[in-house]
Amino acid sequence: MSQRSVIGVHSIRNYDDSEDQNAQSWTVQTARVLKNEFGVSDQIIAKLIETPPANMYKLTSDDLTSMRVEVFDAPHLVPGISSQR
């Protein structure tokens, strides 16, 4: 992942932007898959569940480290940024 990238999480909403029991159920089911199959940390799962659909919790460096995400500086991969500085 590039240093300029942002990854975030939030709870699920319906197509009409509502968050009813069905949407909440999908959020919990998604959280379980992320935790059990992908090893996402409890802290990130909590942020996913508690962040309303209209908002976004941006993962911190510690969050990303807990998921073994590698951050690198690759300006040549970002359109409009020159690697010649």
Which stretches are poorly predicted, pLDDT < 50 over at least 5 residues? none
What is the percent of helical residues? 25-40%
Rg over alpha carbons: 16 Å
How many distinct domains?
1
For the sheet with most strands, the description reads: 2 strands, antiparallel
Number of helices: 3
Number of strands: 2
Overall shape? globular
Overall structural class, as computed from helix and strand content, comes to mainly alpha
> How much strand content do the residues show?
under 5%
Overall pLDDT: 85
End-to-end Cα distance: 21 Å
Order of helices and strands: EHHEH
Strand order of the largest sheet: 1-2
Task: Provide structural commentary.
The protein has 85 residues and is mainly α. It has one domain. The chain contains three helices and two strands. Strands 1-2 form a two-stranded antiparallel sheet. Helix 1 packs antiparallel against helix 2. The chain is globular, with a radius of gyration of 16 Å. The chain starts with 7 loop residues before the first strand and ends in a 19-residue tail after the last helix. The model has no long low-confidence stretch (mean pLDDT 85).
